[in-house]
Amino acid sequence: MVQVAVVGSGQMGSGIAQVLATNTDKEVFLYDISAAAVSQARDSITASLRKLTDKGKLPKERVDRAMGQLQFVTDLPALQRSVFFIEAIVENAAAKTELFQELDRIAEPQAIFASNTSSIPISTLAKATKRPEKVIGMHFMNPVPLMSLVEVIRSPQTSDDTYNTTCTLAKEMGKETVCSKDVAGFIVNRILMPMINEAFFVLHDGIATAADIDQAMKLGTNQPMGPLALADLVGLDTCLFILEVLYRDLKDPKFRPCPLLQQLVNDGFYGRKSGRGVFHYER
Ligand code: CAA
Ligand code: NAD
Hints:
Blueprint (H helix, E strand, L loop, with lengths): L2 E5 L3 H13 L3 E5 L3 H20 L5 H10 E4 L10 E4 L5 H14 L5 E4 L6 H5 L8 E6 L8 E5 L6 H13 L3 E5 L7 H17 L5 H12 L5 H8 L1 H15 L8 H8 L17
Parallel strand pairs: 1-2, 1-4, 2-3, 4-5, 5-6, 7-8
Antiparallel strand pairs: 6-7
Helix pairs in contact: 1-2, 1-3, 7-9, 7-10, 10-11
The structure holds acetoacetyl-coenzyme A and nicotinamide-adenine-dinucleotide (NAD).
Nicotinamide-adenine-dinucleotide binds next to helix 1, helix 4 and strand 6.
């Protein structure tokens, strides 16, 4: 069976691994440096698959097969045979660069490295490897099993072959693709993050309560969830990292992170994943 690897088993990595296992016939290795994160990923994939089968969206036999295709690992050399890597670790350029250097050492020379980064230019990550033509952005949306988009980001060095293989895999996973140039934030977060940031400024300036801000945007602009609840879903730490990349790279004051967002992250309120962000969540 062809082996693919997902590196980082947080909310995005676990969703990507789940969809790879349910929609393709590949053997999927899900890796994290944290054993607790890998164990949590197994639980969240099991829970998500149960929901989808209960609703009749996925046949039970497909779920059993998918669980058999998944391997949960904490040793990097286990990924060695993978032909396609999808990186989904923390949104930090230094951590991603170090990981790409390590992967470059262990992976077969023909293996493709895709990053699920929300904002970091792909050329920055490609430079860390000796295979820049095989490095690409493959930006999934959260929650991966429910969202149909993958933004594909080509750096100037990404080859046509890498681009075509990536688009084919995304389609096999049941996703629609759009293509973006390699500029910080790409399409979705260049547009989405300023809206989320502005929602924090509206709250910070005391213009309305968090509940009213979200209600206004839900009912007033037909969004499925308000911007503050969406920030909690994405992770406030991740929103802040993305805004910092946009602010630094595009050098435009409109991307300056709201001090309230900064404060919540400093206080350890990361959103749903930590049980508290703007709102409180049962865990
Ligand atoms: N697997 C399976 N089922 C899931 C799930 C998952 N991972 N996540 C949620 N669900 C289920 C819910 O449990 C719920 O099931 P029940 O009906 O049994 O309760 C069902 O899906 C529908 O969810 P909700 O009733 O909670 O709410 P909803 O109808 O609003 O749908 C949603 C949920 C799809 C997340 C919807 O609110 C939505 O589309 N929100 C916006 C999401 C979005 O914009 N994502 C992009 C974020 S930006 C990004 O990802 C890029 C980045 O780099 C930051
Ligand atoms: P998360 O915090 O849920 O998970 C990150 C995981 O990476 C953790 O389990 C952590 O242990 C692991 N990790 C950190 N350093 C590692 C390393 N060196 N090697 C292996 N594992 C490591 O984060 P997330 O929300 O899943 O985001 C992951 C990536 O996906 C980020 O680049 C983020 O910007 C991007 N992304 C996030 C969303 C979102 O809505 N959260 C959407 C699209 C893209």
